[in-house]
Write a structure and sequence with these properties.
The structure is a single chain. This protein has 113 residues and is an all-beta fold. The protein has no helices and 11 strands. Strands 2, 4, 5, 6, 9, 10 and 11 form a 7-stranded mixed sheet that branches. The protein starts with a strand and ends with a strand.
């Protein structure tokens, strides 16, 4: 049973940065997981994928965040990160860590003008 716990959300302003973290426990080793992903869900919208890391270390992003978001991992501590820069109002969402069928409860990011 995989448990994923996100943290690091909060208030952000235009152009600001924030780093989210995901702690994995249970059977998952982040270093060897099939793929680790970050998603976000804005109010009234569907959940959307924002970053992916494969066991090889290869990373992928949708065009909407490419160049601004960076996914990384700490294998020794089994943690996944999402560095977010140049944040704009569309950043307001609950951000989720995902590994196959396992999801955390999410961490809230709110854009503050």
């Amino acid at each position: 049973q995989v448990q994923l716990v996100e943290s690091g959300g909060g208030l952000v302003q235009a152009g600001g940065s924030l780093t989210l973290a995901c702690a994995a426990s249970g059977r998952t080793s982040i270093a060897s997981a099939y793929a680790m992903r970050w998603f976000r869900q804005a109010p009234g919208k569907e959940r959307e994928w924002v970053a992916q890391m494969l066991p090889s270390g290869s990373t992928y992003y949708p065009d909407s965040v490419k160049g601004r978001f960076t996914i990384s991992r700490d294998n020794a501590n089994n943690r996944l990160f999402l560095q977010m820069n140049s944040l704009q109002p569309e950043a307001t969402a609950v951000y989720y860590c995902n590994e196959v069928a396992a999801w955390g409860l999410g961490t809230q990011v709110t854009f503050s003008s």
